[in-house]
Amino acid sequence: MRPFTYERATSAEDALTRHDGETYYLGGGTNLVDLMRLGVETPARLVDVAHLPYDDVQLSPDGTLLIGAAMSNSALAADRTVRAGHPMLAQAVLAGASGQIRNLATVGGNLLQRTRCSYFQDTAKPCNKRDPGSGCPAREGEHHNLAILGHSEACVATHPSDMAVALSALGASVHVLGRAGARTIPMDEFHRLPDNEPERDTVLEPGDLVTTVEVPPLGMPSRYRKVRERASFAFALVSIAAALDVDRDVDGGEVRDVRLALGGVAHKPWRAWRAEEALRGRPATRESFLRAAEAELEAAEPLRDNAYKVPLARNLIVRTLTELAETAEPTDTAEPGEGTAS
Predict the structure, then answer these.
(1) CA 291 to CA 288: how far, in whole Å?
(2) Which residue, 237, 212, 218, is CA-closest to 160?
(3) I need a labelling partner for 206 at 20 to 30 A (CA). Which of 21, 58, 308, 325 fits?
(4) For residue 73, how many other CB atoms are within 10 A of its CB?
(5) What's the distance, CA 238 to chain centroid?
(6) Is the pTM of this model over 0.70?
(7) Which pLDDT does position 329 carry in this prediction?
(8) 261-283 per-residue burial string, b: 16 or more CB within 10 A, e: under 16
(9) How far apart (Å, rounded) are the C-alpha atoms in residues 200 and 191?
């Protein structure tokens, strides 16, 4: 590990003044410190921002949540306001990592963890994310758990966050403070697809600091479901964050509104805009859900060993929406047993 200095910021403005080209912000460190040990990340200085006053949830009168970037994942999942109004967010957080890691990991750090695969973490192998222009061995190598949507010749890695998938479906926004001032970035624009610059996971500029995440009110039944290879410490093969509002006054039920995002399928949380558009105003039936899933997955370009993700994602969409269509009212708690995996 490269020697580095450690400093603790006293305010967001202080953090900005301490940042330079070889400085990294440190939250919980659950991803960054691992990558430093592997020699993948080599900062000269760490500026600790985990103790800044962004560690709570504030509820606006209209139901909007303001979630501090320094809040721990465990505290977020346990927050009664989150569990009551945005249950799929609590479920998604509990589906990620172990209890010990959730106690340390922060909301901002979760959003900023690196999109990665095993080649990125092995410094003996080429990787365009780690060393631009060196190649992407995953395309012809081990890729069974990698992207089927939005990938490029330069990278086929998948974003690992469960929480970010739920925030995408919820239409959240990320509040950022930078040298040019404060700005707000829609969640769907915050992370990047790889294109020709896979080394850039987000649209953040050097020195930008995530301060809060804004989540609008939901008001409809929602669910987060994650399919994985084992019950603990496993990233999603495919996951889904879904919310469904059914107009019961229409005979058989009609989809009034729907929110869908997929995880484990792309370089960023994948908002399923095509499926949503195909569903609004349609009957709330399995047949409608299947057509919507197929419309979304028409763009899939699976590799040699991950084509199984296409039917897996299709079935996950259909099953989850079918269950939500049978739900009369929004759930008010995270599902038991959802907190055992990474």
Answers:
(1) 5
(2) 237
(3) 58
(4) 26
(5) 12
(6) yes
(7) 52
(8) bbbbbbbbbbbbebbbebbeeeb
(9) 9
